[in-house]
Specification:
Layout (H helix, E strand, L loop, with lengths): L2 H13 L16 E5 L3 E5 L2 E13 L3 E11 L7 E6 L4 E5 L7 E12 L4 E13 L1
Antiparallel strand pairs: 1-3, 2-3, 3-6, 4-5, 4-7, 7-8
Length: 132
């Protein structure tokens, strides 16, 4: 007779991803820290463009496997532009066309594998804005 409630409890735990919430538990800190640069204007092949970077800064027994940097013109209907790098490399995006006086928005995402067995943990970064 106790088997049915035990099976139900096991099904609930499995359906919730195998995690059990504990009241007052602190979320674990992200496994890696990343540095997102604010948007800035640089010259690329003689043309002004907006750039931003996302770099891995430090990891606690984890391995960064992906960095993504994005720039978008604030108020623009377009999706902006993104660039990604695999591994521990810095992602750098170049946004065109540059609009003098426009406000650019930089965002990013860094992903690392952590734990045993390894599981991916991604951390969003930003937004950082700059009127250029």
């Amino acid at each position: 007779m106790l088997r049915a409630p035990m099976l139900l409890a096991a099904a609930v735990v499995l359906a919730s991803g195998g995690t059990v919430a504990v009241a007052g538990a602190e979320p674990s800190p992200p496994p890696c820290a990343y540095t997102l640069s604010p948007p800035q204007v640089v010259q690329l092949s003689g043309t002004d463009v907006v750039t931003a970077t996302l770099s891995p800064a430090a990891c606690d027994r984890s391995i960064t496997y992906l960095t993504v940097a994005c720039v978008q013109l604030q108020g623009s209907d377009g999706p902006g532009q993104c660039a990604q790098q695999n591994g521990i490399l810095t992602a750098q995006v170049f946004y065109q066309p540059y609009r003098p006086g426009g406000t650019s928005v930089a965002t990013g995402r860094g992903c690392a594998n952590t734990g045993n067995p390894p599981r991916p943990v991604c951390q969003p970064m930003g937004p950082l804005t700059a009127t250029l």
